[in-house]
């Protein structure tokens, strides 16, 4: 889960750490996935002699590489076109508000170009 906003005693706050109040509320973006897939990734990394500190949502990691804090704060749509899937993340107020994975991506586009131009896939790439 990724926190989107906090409310202390009915007042929105950015960072509740160090604040006091009678009631703390949090709105989160919940991410679900196949537990077995995550466990397999962790197992593979450990077999390489490394440790996993945490698993991070792909659009969240991409946003730290490609976006500024101001862009995430003001609002932006991050579209990451990979080989097999396209990841979309909507940011406002510095937090992820929506994510989606679309099963249309670079491989399909390359294949369509190769077919339309009647050229080998490596040339269409």
Q: Under CATH, the topology of the domain at 56-124 is which?
A: Nucleotidyltransferase, domain 5
Strand order of the largest sheet: 2-1-3
Largest β-sheet summary: 3 strands, antiparallel
- Which series of helices and strands comes N to C? EEEHHHEEEHH
Describe the overall structure.
- With 125 residues, the chain is of the alpha+beta class.
- The protein has a domain at 56-124: ATPase, nucleotide binding domain (Nucleotidyltransferase, domain 5, 2-Layer Sandwich).
- Helix content is 35%, strand content 30%.
- The protein has helices at 35-47, 58-66, 69-74, 106-117, 121-124; strands at 2-8, 11-13, 24-29, 76-81, 86-92, 95-102.
- The strands form 2 sheets. It has a 3-stranded antiparallel sheet, with no helix packed on it. Strands 4-5-6 form a 3-stranded antiparallel sheet.
- β4 (76-81) and β5 (86-92) form a beta hairpin.
- The model has no long low-confidence stretch (mean pLDDT 93).
